[in-house]
C-alpha cells in the first residue's frame, strides 16, 4: 500500500505538470501579449493626458495619405476574403436502415455456409471461427438474393439492391433537409464493386429527375475509403461553383460480390461485408450556414499504392475454380498501420495544438541527434478531437487503431457498435458511426470529429468536421429502435 | 416422437396469392415466426447426449417450386397415384447434422393456372397435428393483419403429469411404443418395406350409413370409432398371418392448450381373431380404451435419460383421430383452401390411419392410410368390395 502512494502522488504531479505545460504553450500568444499590453498602457498612463494630446495632434492627417491607407486596408481585406476557400457545410445526412427481414443471425449464416460449401468442411469451420471473432452482431443484413441456397446474384438483383438502398437513403435525406431535386447541382455516387452501365449516378438522376446541367460523378473501384474521396471531390467542385449543393451517395452493393468459392483468404469478406448505404448533402450556400450540422475543416488523403505490397494487399481476383472474390493478404494490419502513420504525419500539424506539436518536434530532434532509442512520441489526438469515427472494417482494424492512437474504449465505442449492429458496410460505415454518436446525445456544438477510412489501394483518408450547431437527439435514423440497447459488451469469441 | 414427420399440403386457388412476390410472402412469415421462437431454433445435444432445441433465430427453410400442370389436373392425377403429393412438400429429415437441420420447412408451389400449394413439413417432435394446424392458422391471421392471441414467450410450462409415488420399477416398455436401434443424428425410421399413402373421402351420407350399420345394442359410435373398426377389420383380412391384435389409438387430449405433443395415446388389445368378429365389437373396444399410456411412455424414456430412440406411429397399427384439427381454417387473404392433404412420414411397418375432417363443401371425413406399398391395393379392393367405397 505505501508503495502505491508515491506512484499515485507522482502521477498526479505529472498530470498537473502536463496540464500546465499544455495550457502555457497553447495560449503562448496570450501570455506574451498580456505583459506587452500592460507595459504599453503603463507607459501611456505615465505620460499624462496633455502629452497624449500633443502626440495626437502632431500626426499629420493628409487627405491623400488617408485615402491611400484606407484603400490599402480595403484592398488587403478584399484579397483576403476572395482567396479564402469557401466554407463547406454538411447540411445533413441519412443512413439506410435495412429491414429486419434481411437480417442474418449467426446460425443462419453458418447453416447457409454449410449448405453452400458442402464439399469443404474445413472452409466452413474457418468461416465459423472468423464469425465468432468478428465483432458482428445478430442483426446485420444481407440482400434478399444472397439468402437463397445457393445465392442467386443476377445483375437485375444487384440493380434492385442498389435501388432499394440508394433511393431509401436519398428519400430520407430529402425529407430531413427539405431540398428539392432541382436544387442539386453536384451528384457523386461511390460504390466500389458494382459498376453497371448506365452508372448508379445516372440511375439517381433518372429516378429523381435531376437537372440536365448537373455535374455528376460515379466513383467505382476505390474501396472502403471512397466515401471520403467523394467528400474531397465534392469540396473541390464546390470551390469552383459558388452557391451550390452537392449530393453524395456512399454505398456498397453486396449481391454481385458474394464469394461463391471456397478459398479461405477470400471467404473473409463474406463474413464481414453487409448491406448499407448513406446519402450526404454538402453545401457552400450562405443560407445553409445556420442550419448545417457540421462544417468541413480538412480532408487528408494518403495513398500507399506506390508500394507493391500495399497495392496487392486487398486484391480482387479469380480463385483456381474461376470464382471471383477479394483476397485479403495476411499483412493487411501492418500495411494499415503504416498508412495510418503517413496520414497522421500530415494531419498532425493541421489539427494538433501547439503543445503536442512541440513535444513531437522535441522527441523527433532528440531521437535524431541524441538517442535513437527514445520511444517515438505519439501525439495525443484526444486533445484535438472529441469524437473518432474509425471505419468499421473489422475488429482487428478498430483494435489496431485504438492501440496506435492510444484511444480509450469510449472513443471507439461508436465504431465497435456500428460493426456489431450493421457489420462492415464499407464506405457508409462512417456515417452510421456519426449517427450513433448523435443518437446517444453526445454531439455538442463546437465538437471536432475525425473520420478515418481505409481502403484498397492501399489508402488511408481522413476527414475532419466541426459541429456547427446544437444537435437534438434524432428521433429517426438507423439507430432509432435499438440505441437503448447499446453499448453492448462484445465478447472476444462468441460461442456459436 | 422425434422420428415422425407431419406433412400438410394446403391447396389454394389463384386469388389467394395473386400478385404476391416471394418477398411479400416471406415478410408475413417473419412476423409469424416471432410467435414461434422454438420453431426457428435448431437441435443440439447436451453433454449427456439428450437433444434440446437452441432458439437461435435460424428460421424456417423456405422453398419455391413451380408445377407445369394446373391444379385441377394435379388433383386428378392424385386420385390415381397419391404418392405424387410428396413432391409438394419438402422431404428433408433432421440430420445428419442436427445443428443445421431445420425442423419446419415450407414449400410454395405455383401451378400453371396460378393456384398455389403450401406444403408444410413439420417435425413431430415440435408438436402434434393440432399444433401444426395452429401454426398455419396463425399465418393466416398475420396475413390478415390480425394480432394472434399468443404470447411471445419461451417459457411455456406444460402441466406435468402427476408423479407416481412408487419408485421407478424396471417395467416392460408400454405396448404403444417400440424401441428402435440408436439412430444417432439421423432421425429417420428404417422400414423393411416402402410405405405408401393413399387417401379417400367419406361424405356425410356414407358416414351416417356406416355409423348406423355398425351401431348395435343402441350404442352410438363416433365416426372415428366406426371407421377405425371397419378399417381394422379390413387390414386384418389382408394380413392373415399377422393379424394386428394390438392397436394404438391417438386422440386429442382435453387438457392444456399449450403447443406440443399432447395427444392421448392408448392401446387396444383384442384377444380373439379380428376377421370373424362383428365390427361393432371392435368399435366398442376402441370406445372403452381410455387408459392413457403417456405416463408409462415417459417412464420408459426416463430410464436412460431420454437418449434412446422410440417410435409411436407404426409400432402397432395406429389410428390417429385428427377430426378436430382445424386445417380448413387456414385462410390466406380471405381465401380458404380448396383441399387439404395430410400425411405422416417416418411410420414404421405396421402402418397408420389418420382421420381428418373433410373439405367444407363435402363435409364428412378424409381418411389417409399409410401402409406398406403391397398392402395398399389389397386394402383398396377390400374396402371397395365390403363397404362400397371408392
From TrEMBL, chain A:
Keyword list, A-Z: Acyltransferase, Membrane, Transferase, Transmembrane, Transmembrane helix
Signal peptide residues on this chain, from the entry's feature table: none
Entry's transmembrane regions: 20-42, 63-82
A Pfam family recorded for this sequence: FAE1_CUT1_RppA
The reaction(s) this protein catalyses: a very-long-chain acyl-CoA + malonyl-CoA + H(+) = a very-long-chain 3-oxoacyl-CoA + CO2 + CoA
Domain Beta-ketoacyl-[acyl-carrier-protein] synthase III C-terminal as annotated: residue spans: 386-466
One MF annotation (Gene Ontology) recorded for this entry: fatty acid elongase activity
Residues covered by the FAE domain: 80-368
Subcellular locations according to the entry: Membrane
Pathway given in the UniProt record: Lipid metabolism; fatty acid biosynthesis
InterPro entries linked: 3-ktacl-CoA_syn, ACP_syn_III_C, FAE1_typ3_polyketide_synth, Thiolase-like
EC number: 2.3.1.-
Catalytic site positions: 224, 303, 387, 391, 420, 424
Class of the enzyme per the UniProt entry, highest EC level: transferase
One term under GO cellular component: membrane
Family: Belongs to the thiolase-like superfamily. Chalcone/stilbene synthases family.
Protein name in UniProt: 3-ketoacyl-CoA synthase
Organism listed in the record: Abeliophyllum distichum
Automatic annotation (TrEMBL), chain B:
Pfam families: Transferase
InterPro entries referenced in this protein's UniProt entry, alphabetically: CAT-like_dom_sf, Plant_Fungal_Acyltransferase
PANTHER family named among the record's database cross-references: PROTEIN ECERIFERUM 26-LIKE, TRICHOTHECENE 3-O-ACETYLTRANSFERASE
Family that this chain belongs to: Belongs to the plant acyltransferase family.
Name this polypeptide is given: Protein ECERIFERUM 26-like
Amino acid at each position: 500500500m505505501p508503495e502505491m502512494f508515491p506512484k499515485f502522488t507522482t502521477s498526479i504531479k505529472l498530470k498537473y505538470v502536463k496540464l500546465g505545460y499544455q495550457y502555457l504553450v497553447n495560449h503562448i500568444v496570450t501570455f506574451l501579449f498580456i505583459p506587452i499590453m500592460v507595459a504599453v498602457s503603463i507607459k501611456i498612463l505615465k505620460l499624462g493626458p496633455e502629452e497624449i494630446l500633443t502626440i495626437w495632434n502632431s500626426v499629420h492627417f493628409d487627405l491623400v495619405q488617408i485615402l491611400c491607407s484606407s484603400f490599402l486596408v480595403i484592398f488587403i481585406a478584399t484579397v483576403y476574403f476572395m482567396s479564402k476557400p469557401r466554407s463547406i457545410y454538411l447540411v445533413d445526412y441519412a443512413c439506410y436502415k435495412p429491414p429486419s427481414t434481411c437480417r442474418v443471425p449467426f446460425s443462419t449464416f453458418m447453416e447457409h455456409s454449410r449448405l453452400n460449401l458442402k464439399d469443404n468442411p474445413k472452409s466452413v469451420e474457418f468461416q465459423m471461427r472468423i464469425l465468432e471473432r468478428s465483432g458482428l452482431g445478430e442483426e446485420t443484413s444481407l440482400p434478399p438474393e444472397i439468402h437463397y441456397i445457393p445465392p442467386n446474384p443476377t445483375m437485375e438483383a444487384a440493380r434492385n439492391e442498389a435501388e432499394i438502398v440508394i433511393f431509401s437513403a436519398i428519400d430520407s435525406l430529402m425529407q430531413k433537409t427539405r431540398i428539392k431535386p432541382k436544387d442539386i447541382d453536384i451528384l457523386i455516387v461511390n460504390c466500389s464493386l458494382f459498376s453497371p452501365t448506365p452508372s448508379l449516378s445516372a440511375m439517381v438522376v433518372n429516378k429523381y429527375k435531376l437537372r440536365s446541367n448537373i455535374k455528376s460523378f460515379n466513383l467505382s473501384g476505390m474501396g472502403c475509403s471512397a466515401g471520403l474521396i467523394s467528400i474531397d471531390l465534392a469540396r473541390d467542385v464546390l470551390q469552383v461553383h459558388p452557391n451550390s449543393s452537392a449530393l453524395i451517395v456512399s454505398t456498397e452493393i453486396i449481391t454481385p460480390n458474394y464469394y461463391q468459392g471456397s478459398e479461405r483468404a477470400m471467404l473473409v469478406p463474406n463474413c464481414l461485408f453487409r448491406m448499407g448505404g448513406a446519402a450526404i448533402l454538402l453545401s457552400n450556400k450562405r443560407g445553409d450556414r445556420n442550419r448545417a450540422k457540421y462544417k468541413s475543416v480538412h480532408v487528408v488523403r494518403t495513398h500507399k499504392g506506390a508500394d507493391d505490397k500495399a497495392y496487392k494487399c486487398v486484391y480482387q481476383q479469380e480463385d483456381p475454380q474461376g470464382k471471383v472474390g477479394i483476397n485479403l493478404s495476411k499483412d493487411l494490419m501492418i500495411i494499415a498501420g503504416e498508412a495510418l502513420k503517413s496520414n497522421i504525419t500530415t494531419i498532425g500539424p493541421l489539427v494538433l495544438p501547439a503543445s503536442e506539436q512541440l513535444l513531437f518536434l522535441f522527441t523527433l530532434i532528440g531521437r535524431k541527434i541524441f538517442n535513437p532509442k527514445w520511444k517515438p512520441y505519439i501525439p495525443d489526438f484526444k486533445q484535438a478531437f472529441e469524437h473518432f469515427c474509425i471505419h468499421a472494417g473489422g475488429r482487428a482494424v478498430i483494435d489496431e487503431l485504438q492501440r496506435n492512437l492510444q484511444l480509450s474504449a469510449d472513443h471507439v465505442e461508436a465504431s465497435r457498435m456500428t460493426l456489431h449492429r450493421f457489420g462492415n458496410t464499407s464506405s457508409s460505415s462512417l456515417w452510421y458511426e456519426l449517427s450513433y454518436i448523435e443518437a446517444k446525445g453526445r454531439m455538442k456544438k463546437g465538437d471536432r470529429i475525425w473520420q478515418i477510412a481505409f481502403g484498397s489501394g492501399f489508402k488511408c483518408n481522413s476527414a475532419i468536421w466541426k459541429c456547427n450547431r446544437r444537435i437534438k437527439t434524432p428521433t429517426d435514423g438507423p439507430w432509432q429502435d435499438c440505441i437503448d440497447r447499446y453499448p453492448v459488451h462484445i465478447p472476444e469469441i462468441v460461442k456459436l | 416422437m422425434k422420428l415422425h414427420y407431419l406433412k400438410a399440403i394446403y391447396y389454394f386457388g389463384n386469388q389467394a396469392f395473386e400478385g404476391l412476390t416471394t418477398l411479400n410472402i416471406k415478410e408475413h412469415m417473419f412476423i409469424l415466426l416471432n410467435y414461434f421462437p422454438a420453431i426457428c431454433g435448431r437441435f443440439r445435444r447436451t453433454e449427456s447426449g439428450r437433444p434440446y432445441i437452441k432458439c437461435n433465430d435460424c428460421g424456417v427453410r423456405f422453398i419455391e417450386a413451380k408445377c407445369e400442370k394446373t391444379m385441377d389436373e394435379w388433383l386428378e392425377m392424385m386420385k390415381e397415384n397419391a404418392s405424387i403429393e410428396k413432391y409438394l412438400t419438402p422431404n428433408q429429415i433432421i440430420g445428419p447434422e442436427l445443428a443445421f437441420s431445420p425442423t419446419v420447412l415450407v414449400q410454395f408451389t405455383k401451378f400453371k393456372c396460378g393456384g398455389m400449394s403450401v406444403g408444410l413439413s413439420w417435425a413431430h417432435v415440435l408438436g402434434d397435428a393440432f399444433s401444426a394446424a395452429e401454426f398455419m392458422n396463425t399465418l393466416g391471421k398475420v396475413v390478415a393483419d390480425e394480432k394472434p392471441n399468443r404470447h411471445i414467450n419461451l417459457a411455456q410450462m406444460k402441466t406435468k403429469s402427476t408423479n407416481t409415488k412408487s419408485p421407478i420399477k424396471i417395467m416392460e416398455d408400454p405396448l404403444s411404443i417400440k424401441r428402435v436401434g440408436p439412430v444417432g443424428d439421423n432421425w429417420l425410421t428404417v422400414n423393411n418395406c416402402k410405405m405408401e399413402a393413399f387417401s379417400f373421402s367419406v361424405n356425410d351420407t356414407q358416414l351416417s350409413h356406416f355409423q348406423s350399420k355398425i351401431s348395435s345394442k343402441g350404442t352410438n359410435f363416433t365416426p372415428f370409432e366406426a371407421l377405425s373398426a371397419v378399417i381394422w377389420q379390413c387390414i386384418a383380412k389382408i394380413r392373415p398371418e399377422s393379424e394386428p391384435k394390438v392397436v394404438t389409438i391417438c386422440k386429442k387430449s382435453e387438457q392444456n392448450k399449450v403447443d406440443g405433443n399432447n395427444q392421448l395415446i392408448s392401446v387396444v388389445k383384442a384377444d380373439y381373431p379380428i376377421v370373424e368378429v362383428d365390427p361393432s365389437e371392435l368399435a366398442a373396444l376402441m370406445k372403452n380404451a381410455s387408459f392413457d399410456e403417456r405416463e408409462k411412455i415417459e417412464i420408459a424414456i426416463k430410464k436412460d435419460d431420454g437418449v434412446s430412440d422410440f417410435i409411436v406411429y407404426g409400432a402397432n397399427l395406429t389410428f390417429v383421430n385428427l377430426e378436430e384439427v382445424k386445417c380448413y381454417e387456414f385462410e390466406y387473404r380471405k381465401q380458404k383452401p380448396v383441399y387439404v392433404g395430410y400425411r405422416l412420414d417416418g411410420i414404421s411397418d405396421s402402418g397408420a390411419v389418420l382421420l381428418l375432417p373433410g373439405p367444407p363443401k363435402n363435409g364428412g371425413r378424409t381418411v389417409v392410410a399409410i401402409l406398406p406399398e403391397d398392402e395398399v391395393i389389397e386394402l383398396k379392393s377390400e374396402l371397395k368390395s365390403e363397404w362400397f367405397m371408392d
